[in-house]
């Protein structure tokens, strides 16, 4: 059979890795796909830039449209990232009848509904395994491996840069900015690293996972998102004292009232496997009604780990080309006409436990005031630590773990606590999940 021809848009970390893996494993890949796969064309903004891959035999251009409009090419691999240009290019590729493989989570989270509708109309595939958790085949696991289950919840460390920063800060006492620069140099961080540290990248990925898990439209704008920039060294060590590790989690949970979708720093009991996922590694814990807990672990970013997912998608497209091209696995796992409009809960309706850290003046009755306010909002305290005065500071840190309560009650309680004359500064709150 004729080789399948592929055009790659973007020759950066992931584009270079994709070409390297396709070349190195060509024989093995052909045995799996049933046909040879040839990268014939590639585009890059600067053709003189030094590359991590060998581009010999590949026709290079600075204009992606040269590739998308080339009738010889069967599959377009979009690896330029970003949102608007990528969206235009992908829609033109689909209109031209080409199959698309992308690693672009922002593109799928923000424009996936439109892209999938166009792809369905044109009868082409759009595959995006590399968009979530790098090399971990979590989309395949959710969409195919767990398709017998009602998915009840998932919780994931889905941003490698953020996890790398938290791990290095905890283990080596390194400075936030210094670790972030290293993540950028290693090609883990987004072009705009605030996407990593403010949780936007994780929210893009959670949007995709939640749609596939629950059969709902992609709804990035409804995700409650909090980054890691306010996590201090003290919080990390107080959490450890209480038996917890702080991780930046993306959580999607089905409740009787709707679906919780949230990204925020979270205290997790240190004995949980996911609490021990360190560095740039990602992990996703999925709970299905039949299978129970399952955990998927691996490299969440980097050149070849991400290329592993991109190339697997290319192979899937090639396999589908040789079977029934009308009968694809649906983009969001559920048939397009069966996507459900289950409400996404407002952040106020989140139910979780909390870690609270506040500084109080060393005066009689302060604690009674704080606990009275919590009791008035039906918030029960699970554990409590009081420290002596800190260096150069007359105030005392108080650390509490609460039992599960409504976010709305906690917001009101924190407002009243911060209004007390005896409380210094703001209350630092981190959500707690036992994931048991
Ligand atoms: N910036 C992302 C991360 C890259 O650090 O996880 C992979 O999506």
What this model shows, in words?
36% of the residues lie in helices and 25% in strands. The protein is an alpha/beta fold and 436 residues long. It folds into three domains: 4-135 and 303-338, Rossmann fold, CATH 3.40.50; 138-299, Dihydrodipicolinate Reductase, domain 2, CATH 3.30.360.10; 348-432, 2-Layer Sandwich (Alpha-Beta Plaits). The strands form two sheets. Strands 7, 8, 9, 10, 11, 12, 13, 14, 15, 16 and 17 form an eleven-stranded mixed sheet that branches. The protein is elongated, with a radius of gyration of 24 Å. The mean pLDDT is 94. It binds L-homoserine.
Summarize the structure.
The protein has 436 residues and is α/β, with parallel strands linked by helices.
Task: Give keywords.
alpha/beta, Dihydrodipicolinate Reductase, domain 2, six-stranded parallel β-sheet, Alpha-Beta Plaits, 436 residues, Rossmann fold, elongated, 14 helices, single chain, binds L-homoserine
